[in-house]
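Quick question, first post here. What does this chain look like in 3D?
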Amino acid sequence: MDAVTRAAAVYLFLVLILRIAGKRTLHQVTTFDIVLLLVISEATQQALLGEDFSITAAFLVITTLVGIDIVMSFLGNRWRLVDHILGSRPELIVDHGTVLKDRLHRHRMEESEILEAARELQGLERLADIKFAVLERSGSITIIPEDGN
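> Answer (accepted):
Ran it through. Tokens below.
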């Protein structure tokens, strides 16, 4: 039972930490992020298994983590509040060429990231050419050009 408790605690902690980190952090992977992920995974492995490195404990931990993930997904689909806490909603960051700076600041983004997405996805060079830019749940940016483009 210790492995189940450890798995649940680590799962909830990681969900909380990654939720605080924000969706743009998860979308933009740098070398530092990969190193951090490796360190986190090693620390997580030690926290999950403790002193018991048996295959039974590993199977129990994996089953617990997948089970919690399934339950959280079900709860998120059933109740909007749980979905809001665990996930996030797409958010408008450019409205008819106007950057919504408070939202950009909240997600630790720069205007240059929006322009980069506009160039890559739509071939647009100016903010005025963007009708809407939406920061998606995944951290990617969707660009909707003005009608004339």
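The beta strands are 91-95, 98-99, 130-135, 141-145.
Residues 2-86 form one domain.
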